[in-house]
Write a structure and sequence with these properties.
Chain lengths: 117, 273
């Protein structure tokens, strides 16, 4: 789980828009490593992820080159990779999510668009 | 030796838990299934929320056959299966939850009416496309690559279509004044005075704007209610307050605060990309 040899080519996406393509940016190896460390420290969750309202910010997704991906929203992070069931972990402080969003280039101006209630 | 796959049909948002049984366990299960098929002819309700039975499939069997069963002996076998205790993603309370849900489903079946409830129809919306979210919500190619504009126009392009792009007249700003003519260039017909009334031909769509941020489209269904597809997310028929949408002008639209206009999609006329 904590291997990050697939860091090159990893991307992050904010699930935000409806008509326009969602903003996507590249993650550095160091950034992906940091996210994997945060993920490794989270405890398992049996609570289904909070459903985001249909319009507006709906969480963020990290995709690695080896088709592993994490979706974070509302204090739950879901991890999926090929042939494995989705694994959920609690992130009450939304550390994973806020760390992903902090890697977004300033030019995307996501800060005020990704606030959650 | 045959492997039997059991899917516990339980969740709505999360994937259902799956167990693969082989050897003696698979033989026991198939024996129980055969006797239950003789004694349980009634169709099981399959679109309720919560536990909806066990989906049983013999892997490798051709043609593929999946049987839904809620036989109590089978349920007993599965709910007590030790591997459920070890599945960390299901949580430690899962076996208890499952048994509770199985009991709830027994009660539900005892009172279940198989009468089909009529879906409200309005004759003047007979030209509107079918509301068929399952067709779009495939969690893959269709869902991920078609947006609100694709859904509203009922045209799958797998390109995340942008107003005006097909006509070489793409919008230049995220304003009503820019997106509306781009859609007109795609051959949608502006109907600012439609007042939420279905047209006699084609179907009604609505354009809303998050000023400077994004645009969004809704489409009116045959029953008079509206549905929409927020970006790569699934098609839904509720607004941001989880209410049905009788009129997009009054729906909770989040950041899409500006209602731009109603438009009509004439089937076969519109080209999007």
């Amino acid at each position: 789980m904590s291997k990050s040899n697939d860091a090159a080519g990893a991307t992050a996406t904010a699930l935000l828009y409806s008509g326009r393509p969602d903003p996507t940016w590249r993650l550095s190896e160091r950034q992906l490593r940091q996210l994997v460390q945060i993920w490794d420290a989270l405890r398992p969750s049996s609570v289904p992820p909070l459903r985001a309202p249909p319009l507006g910010y709906r969480g963020c997704v990290v995709r690695s080159k080896t088709r592993r991906h994490w979706t974070a929203y509302g204090g739950v992070v879901a991890y999926a990779s090929a042939n494995l069931p989705v694994e959920l972990r609690v992130d009450d402080a939304r550390q994973f999510e806020s760390t992903v969003l902090a890697t977004a280039p300033a030019s995307l101006r996501l800060k005020h668009l990704t606030r959650q209630p | 030796m045959a492997t039997v796959r059991i899917t516990i049909d339980l969740f709505s948002g999360r994937p259902n838990p799956v167990l693969d049984l082989s050897g003696r366990q698979a033989r026991t299960l198939l024996t129980l299934l055969r006797s239950s098929e003789r004694g349980e002819p009634a169709a099981l309700p399959s679109s309720t929320l919560g536990y909806r039975g066990l989906l049983i499939e013999r892997l490798g069997e051709k043609p593929r056959r999946v049987v839904r069963s809620a036989d109590s002996a089978l349920e007993e076998l599965i709910s007590a299966h030790p591997s459920l205790q070890r599945r960390s993603e299901l949580g430690p309370r899962f076996p208890k939850l499952l048994r509770h849900e199985m009991e709830r489903y027994r009660v539900l079946r005892a009172h279940w009416s198989h009468r089909r409830l009529p879906w409200p129809q309005r004759r003047h919306c007979h030209c509107a496309p079918l509301y068929e979210p399952a067709w779009w919500n495939d969690a893959g190619q269709k869902q991920g690559n078609n947006n609100c504009y694709n859904y509203a126009t009922d045209i799958r392009t797998d390109t995340f279509a942008q107003p005006g792009l097909a006509a070489g007249a793409e919008y230049s700003a995220l304003t009503c004044a820019s997106v509306r003519p781009a859609a007109v260039a795609d051959d949608l017909i502006a109907k600012p005075g439609a007042n939420n009334k279905c047209p006699s031909e084609g179907h009604l769509v609505a354009l809303v704007i998050a000023p400077g941020i994004d645009f969004h489209w809704y489409r009116k269904n045959r029953n008079g209610y509206w549905s929409h597809k927020p970006g790569s997310s699934p098609v839904v028929h509720v607004d941001n307050s989880n209410h049905l949408i009788p009129d997009p002008r009054t729906a909770d639209r989040g950041m899409y605060t500006q209602f731009c206009t109603f438009m009509v999609v004439m089937h076969g006329h519109v080209k999007i990309q």
